[in-house]
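Weekly modeling sync, notes
Attendees: S.R. (lead), two postdocs, one rotation student

Agenda item 3: backlog of single-chain predictions. S.R. asked that every request posted to the team notebook include the full sequence so nobody has to chase files. The rotation student volunteered to paste the first one in as an example of the format we agreed on. Action items at the bottom.

Example entry:
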Amino acid sequence: MPMASYTKRGQRWLCRVYSPILRKSIGRTGRTKRLAFAAADARRRELEGGLVPESDTLTVADYLRRWLDQHAGHVAERTLRRYRSLIELHVLPTLGSRPIGRLHPMNVEGLYQRLATDGRRDGKPGGLHPRTIGHVHRVLHKALADAVRLQVVSRNVAAAARPPTIPRRRIDAPSVDTVQQVLTAVAGTLVERETWFTAYTGVRVGELVALRWADVDLDARTVRVARAMTREPHRGIVVTPTKTEASDRLVPLAEPIVIALRAHRAVQAQHRLNVGPAWQDLDLLFPSAVGTPQDPRNVLRRFQAALDRAGIPRMRWHDLRHCCASLMLSAGIPLAVVSELLGHSSIQITKDTYGHITADAKHQAVQRLHEVLAR
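Predicted structure, as returned to the notebook:
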């Protein structure tokens, strides 16, 4: 057993354990001598094993900012901005000055509790939504997992902390009648083909405007979704890879969409001739009037305007994606297939989002079985 000394500090004990290897004492506190010794001795063994740096001077803020800088170029710029915002706004004000080697799961859970009660940063009282705290947890967990891999710390304390339970979202997708009304409303507008394509394929709007003719195989009736358009500060519209590796996918096309795309290609070719030298040939499936990428926000504006003219309550463009998914699941398409077609990073996301639909389908299956057996 290593040499140890104890000092009473208020209601707690300070234990100092001497390490002959490091030739210094390591101190930790606890409510009892035994707890203080356990903490100090565990720290001694970590330092002697070379699992963590000897210095406790590296703060959480220093590490996380370095971690963000190292991620530049390895994740999408939009993702990096989101990481930075979550860390700067919600993590560092509470944990930033703490040495990363002394971070404890209770500190992390305390952060989550504070964010839940008084975490807003928009000048309004109250806490953050559990989903936002969940985002904070995932970013912190990821950063500390890298810290373990790099031997900055010996364990990921975020893995031991418990974030608040995130309420499951129930997606109420538009009904078939509503979508049919929408498709009628957009007929003859600048957003007609985009709306039809999304209703049949469930692609995200950023993926939609990034599609090229080279991605489409009309004979095989497929489209490769591999890129997305996003708006970046100071850069405008930029092309990025899809959200995740699973988002890069091959989507089959229904026959009506294939027919519509053949007609669309002919119309686009004539329009290109009419525009003349002003046309920029970027091979885009759904370009602007001069061939350049469409801003996803403009697609939404035209969509909303068409709904307003038809007197249809406004919906998000993403609701077309939800409707596509809901109809496939209601038709009995396996969850794994729908997840792949939507480009979800995991089947769990699909299950969490549309679980109520699959549950309804199960009840319908049981009822159908009863009807067959009762004949």
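Discussion: group reviewed the output briefly. The chain has three domains: 4-48, 60-160, 176-314.
Action items: rotation student to repeat for the remaining queue; S.R. to check formatting next week.
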